[in-house]
Amino acid sequence: MQTKTKNKTINNNPIGIFDSGFGGLTVMSTIDEVFPLESFVYFGDTAHVPYGSKSKDTVVKYSKEIASFLVKCKVKLIVIACNTASAFALPILKKTLKIPVIGVVKPGSKAAVFASKNKKIGVIGTEGTIGSKSYLREINKISRCKVYQQACPLLVPLVEEGWNDAEVTASIVQKYVEPLLDKQIDTLVLGCTHYPLLKKTLKKNVGEKIILIDSAEATADEVRNILNKKHLLANTKNKKFLRFYVSDNPGKFKRIGSRFFSKKIFNVKKIEMSC
Ligand code: DGL
């Protein structure tokens, strides 16, 4: 609920975050660190993960249902932490919801343009994100850049397996990024929730000179802008909580999710989705 104090409005309602599964917890972990006073409601669509290989219509259908659930939880802002859902569903959710909605593609694109000196930017992501060309479009809205894209469908299962530093992962990463390195990119956008966990392996492959863009950090800045602009920041009286909802297998979410969230996860409830 929004309350007016002397000069500013405060709002102690939670921030809603959703993803196809565990991956969005990397984004939530960053935002939670930046906003220690804020409460969060997270929804992981574990019944339908992965989104990366699904069609736009399907991802939009799931995203709409999750967004309505979050609205019922009285969230004050929705962050679409999933790159694929941001690419496919952000425009429609922005149009239909009364609360602010942000995705990770625009903030990641802004950060990439800001970081790149030679204006040659690589983007890696799921088949859906890359096929949508949403990073390419957003980057070029800000500045004319050469954007080289690469879908990396094998990386999500490897990270979920916990093989972030394994040899097999390193050689698959190398195969995916080689064509981008041939184009002399100086910046690489990690356009998928899972890739921040591969930073070490990626660094080894691309070298120290290429800047890796983690959309989660850029998204936290965007959250700050919106909460400030719309006077939605929580205050110290907020009784902070973190709630997690999933569409399947809460036990697995707690187990695997803790690796993505870098903290133990409690409070996970299963919600039946109708689609
Ligand atoms: N969360 C997805 C993304 O960032 C990756 C996992 C999936 O394919 O669902 O695109």
| Quaternary organisation | single chain
CATH class of the largest domain: Alpha Beta
Shape: globular
- For the secondary structure, the number of strands is 12
* CATH fold category name of the largest domain: Rossmann fold
Q: Approximately how much beta-strand content do the residues carry?
A: 15-25%
Which residues form runs of ≥5 with pLDDT under 50? none
Mean pLDDT: 95
Order of helices and strands: EEEHEHEHEHEHHEHHEHEHEHE
Distance between the termini: 30 Å
**Which percent range fits the helix content?**
40-55%
| Total count of domains | 2
Could you tell me which ligands this complex binds, including any ions or cofactors?
A: D-glutamic acid
From the coordinates shown, what is the CATH architecture of the largest domain?
3-Layer(aba) Sandwich
Alpha plus pi helix count: 11
Q: What's the arrangement of strands in the largest beta sheet?
A: 6-5-3-4-11-12
Structure, explained:
This protein has helices spanning 24-34, 56-72, 83-96, 105-115, 127-132, 134-142, 155-160, 167-181, 199-206, 215-229, 250-261; strands at residues 2-4, 9-11, 15-19, 40-44, 77-80, 101-102, 120-125, 146-151, 187-191, 211-214, 242-246, 268-270. With 275 residues, it is α/β, with parallel strands linked by helices. The chain folds into 2 domains: 2-103 and 218-270, Rossmann fold, CATH 3.40.50.1860; 105-217, 3-Layer(aba) Sandwich (Rossmann fold), CATH 3.40.50. A 6-stranded parallel beta sheet has the order 6-5-3-4-11-12, with helices on both faces. Helix 2 crosses helix 3 (83-96) and helix 4 (105-115) packs across helix 10 (215-229). The model has no long low-confidence stretch (mean pLDDT 95). The site of D-glutamic acid has 17 residues, from helix 3.
